[in-house]
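Hi R.,

Here are the chain sequences for the assembly we discussed:
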Amino acid sequence: MTLNLFYFLSFLGILSALLVVFSKNPVHSVLYLIITFFVIAAHYVLLNAQFLAIVHVIVYAGAIMVLFLYVIMLLNLNQEAEPHKSNLIRFAATISAGLLLLVLVGTLKGTDQMLVQSAAPVEVGLVKSLGRVLFKEYMLPFEISSILLLAAMVGAVMLGKPENIKK
Amino acid sequence: MMSIFIFKVILVVAVFAISLFMAAYSTYAERKVAAFMQDRIGPDRAGPFGLLQPLADGLKLFMKEEIIPTISNKFLFVLGPCLFMITALMTGAVIPWGDTLTFGGVSYALQITDINIGILYVFGVVSIGVYGIMIGGWASNNKFSLLGAIRASAQMISYEIAMGFSIIALVMMTGTLSLKEISVFQGGGVDGHWNFWNVVYQPFSFLIFIICAFAECNRAPFDLPECETELVGGYHTEFSSMKLGLYLFAEYINMFISSAIISTLFFGGYNFPFMHDLGLDANMITILGTVALFTKIVFFIFFFMWIRWTIPRFRYDQLMNLGWKGLLPLSILNLVITGAVILYFNK
Amino acid sequence: MQALTQRSKIVSNKKMTFLERIYLPAILGGVVITIKHMFQRSATVRYPEKEREFSEIYRGQHVLKRDDNGAERCTACGLCAVSCPAEAITMVAEERKKGEEKLYREEKYAATYEINMLRCIFCGLCEEACPKEAIFLTDRIVVTDYGRDSFIYGKDKLVEPIDQRVDVSKRQTKEVLEFKKQKQLTHNK
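And here is the predicted structure of the full complex:
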């Protein structure tokens, strides 16, 4: 049952991820990306991480993708508006994508041993255990990432401020 | 086991039906309340006191000509209202509509599912609800619709943040994200001592939450996504027939659900004062509790309408100022103070 | 410059105080007002079941009166058309022939007399101008219709039938009669 569900969700996820890349209309791409995020959230639920699943939906599908959609709708991108891409850019894009693939394959190769360890108990995804892990074992990375977000926020405010305001 | 399954199915259908029923009669109540507040009578032609008005309205919407603009994306145009309606109906699954009923030794909880992250589920569904508006507005291929859709989504995202922060204070106090446990927490006579409703402990949180709820439901004074004076009809300008009906209907369902959530979070849910001192049968108390919950919900729906017919619409910059510069800092302040108080009392 | 009304308010852009800025007191005040209105009597009259009482001097659809013998009083002098601010009245005059004394009181009469009810503003100036007490406004309502042409009322609709006289005395209240005694209205006898 769970395994079949996993295969189905994986199929759906890969299909929608491919459609993100191949669909012509950018708005459709964003919508497929949203479906991809939902499928990933469903995978989290399969792994008993309900909290993570819901937060994933709220943050990615609910907030970030809305902003994406926003920008694309406002810019009204269509094929005529697409800038001409030079061969150099295409070459660079291929190289960087290939590098990313290399990194991904490299990391996925090392997951064999991890799978054995993570015979996850049922409560692993609950808010309580997650909070305990975050605030005890991973206290420093957690706080550092929050400072990173704060810095990003301050930067956004600085960029958004009109320059000629002086007091 | 089987009986519980059947009970759940019945409950799902019942919640679905009640949501639709409440939404239908909210449209009637809205018109009546508006009329009374303006010294008028309101609809009184269809049936006694106009009680069949929602049926007449629904029939009218079904019979109307359906227009799909030629240069619009047809699939997304249809998907928009459907998505909005689905997300509006989904939230009812985690709300505890009552305590447990016991028949023949089997206890049935009057809640479709008690997931331990109930509040977050509500937030997740609400944040997806934006897509219904955005997709519908964009697919209409109309500037007014697009502007309405963008306003709606900007407003909903902005107010979701303040709403979330106001709820965190509450969650810190109750120590749980499950709506059922929050309801139990507010019940009279847990551990032998009296627990007040959360609104007593968290008045600021309640205030921020209800203001944000107005904004999330696109209700006046924050109904900018559909403000007629500027945007014709906002995101549903191009919609007609039952697709428009779905949008309007889903808005009323949203109102009903948010009233239910406000009642559950801040006004004790299905608890009512002196419920354990009456010496009644447990099943009786459960039924009375459900009645109490619906009384609270109806009051809040009335409150939504009351505010709508009192306050003029905000300007867009006022709306954003209020959300980001007013409510968000206030909710964070409330959060910090709550944390400090909890720390002080637990020591 | 003199103010046009005494009710105009001077608008100032002063900064709002703290209490005004948090909106809540103002909202509370508004909410109290609306809830008070919920318990007030509604001004609606449920129309088909209950008709609204007309004012005594209500000015509705016109009537062209006949005299006691049943002859039309109108002499087609055109004063009503001249006095009409909306220019709603037109008429064609004709001379009375022998044998028509029973039909028309004066030697000249209106062969056609038309009022465009869409232009008419029901001011009653025609009634005031009429030297023969021929035209009156009554408490009847001009019925609605779909076409514009049907709102041009001819003599068939305006002249009162002999057997169904239209009562215009209702509007002639004591105050109206007193008003008509004024010198500039002496022609109106």
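Chain B touches chain A through 24 residues (CB under 8 Å). Residues 2-346 of chain B form one domain.

Let me know if anything looks off.

Best,
T.
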